[in-house]
Amino acid sequence: MTVTTAAGPASGRAAKPVTMAHALNRALRDAMAADPSVHVLGEDVGALGGVFRVTDGLAAEFGEDRCTDTPLAEAGILGTAVGMAMYGLRPVVEMQFDAFAYPAFEQLISHVAKMRNRTRGALSLPLVVRVPYGGGIGGVEHHSDSSEAYYLATPGLHVVTPATVEDAYGLLRAAIASDDPVVFLEPKRLYWSKSAWTPEAAEVEPIGRAVVRRTGRSATLITYGPSLPVCLEAAEAAAEEGWDLEVVDLRSLVPFDEETVCAAVRRTGRAVVVHEAAGFGGPGGEIAARITEKCFHHLEAPVLRVAGFDIPYPPPMLERHHLPGVDRILDAVARLQWEGGN
Questions:
Q1: pLDDT tens, the chain, 342 aa long
Q2: Active-site position among 143, 158, 275, 322
Q3: Helices 283-295 and 258-268 sit at what angle, rounded to 10 degrees?
Q4: pTM of the full predicted structure?
Q5: 143 flagged as catalytic
Q6: Distance between CA atoms of residues 150 and 102, nearest Å
Q7: 209 close to 158: Cβ distance less than 8 angstroms
C-alpha cells in the first residue's frame, strides 16, 4: 500500500543519508499526522524525545496529550495503552530498554495477546509496543537483552524487527495501521545506521514477508534485525573461500514467512540460522524445525544455528565474544560443506 507523509511530494533533490532512528521518528510523525487516534506514550518520550531520540519533537508538534511522558511503571504504561486501544485509540508504547519491559509482561500476556480471542473477535487491540533490543552498544545488564523468544512464545502477538532504514519506516507504519497488537523490536546497534532514503511515496508491504537480501547457491543464511549486517559481511568474506551465500532477512518473526525461507533453502540445500538471542530455546530452534519439516528431502546437511551463548548478557568487554560474528558464521558454513559433502 502507499502511505501518505507529512512532508508531501518529493522535491526531486538527492536524498540526504538518514539514520534508522530518524526513519522511526518520521514514521511516528507521519502516522500521528495522518490519524489523530495515534498516541505515543512512555518514559521520557515527550520533552526529552526518548533515550535514543526516536520521539524527538513529537510532543512539541502534537502536544503532550498525544506524546505523553509517563511514570516509571511499565505495567501501568501498557495497562493504560490497553484501555486506550479498547476505546478506539491506537497507542504506541515505548519500553525504554528491552529488559525494562518485563514488568509489563502480565499485561502483555493476559490482556494484549488474548483480548481478540477472549471476546470472540469483537474487540481488537490495535497497539504497538516498541522495544529497543539486542547488543552491540556496550550496554550493561538490563540494557542489552535479546528478548524476542518471550514474545514469539505468546500466541496473539505479531513480532516485527527491521534491519534497514527503509524497513524501519515502512514496518512501523504497517504496525501502527494493524488491528492486531504488534511487538516492534528495534535493534539498538542499528539506530545510527544510515541510508540515502526518503519516505515520500513509500511503499509499505504487509507484515509477514521476508526478503532475500543476497542471492547465492552454496548455503542460505537466515537472520533478522541486528544480525543482518553481520550476515552480509560474512557472505562477502565467504566469497573469498569460494562459497556463494544467500541471505534472507525475516523482517517479521510472527507471522513467519515460511514460503520465502523454504524456497531459499531448497535452492541451496544448506541453511544456517543466525541471531543474537540464546541458542537454547531461541528463535533459531523453531526456524530450524520448520525448515527440516518442510525441506527435509532438499537438505544436504543439518540446519545449523549461530547464536548468543546460553548465559545472561555479559559485560561490555566480553560482548564481542558473545555476539555472533563473521568467524562463527563462516565456521558454521564450513561445517555444512563438510557434513553434507562439497
A1: 445 555 444 444 556 889 999 999 999 999 999 999 999 999 999 999 999 999 999 999 999 999 999 999 999 999 999 999 999 999 999 999 999 999 999 999 999 999 999 999 999 999 999 999 999 999 888 899 999 999 999 999 999 999 999 999 999 999 999 999 999 999 999 999 999 888 775 667 789 999 999 999 999 999 999 999 999 999 999 999 899 999 999 999 999 999 999 999 999 999 999 999 999 999 999 999 999 999 999 999 999 999 999 999 999 999 999 999 999 999 999 999 766 555
A2: 143
A3: 60
A4: 0.93
A5: yes
A6: 10
A7: no
